Amino acid sequence: xxxxxxxxxxxxxxxxxxxxxxxxxxxxxxxxxxxxxxxxxxxxxxxxxxxxxxxxxxxxxxxxxxxxxxxxxxxxxxxxxxxxxxxxxxxxxxxxxxxxxxx
Length: 103
What we know:
By secondary structure, this protein is mainly α. The protein is about 75% helix and about 0% strand.
């Protein structure tokens, strides 16, 4: 655990536990939020091929997950960790331009 705390720049066990809790909760939360949205869009495995439905659902869950991660992190007092995590993750996906400062 000490290596993980050092890697993530976390100085106490509560912060590490809060980070684990946020990661654990956010996946389920994003899937839960996506369910009514897929319903509003008329997407369901009954009305379309599961081969199309599930990739579309994952594509919908992805931005919800990325948006709610720092918000849920904020509730647990870990906003800075998750904001930095988001910037790093999205930059690796080629979306770093979203965080560039414009002069």
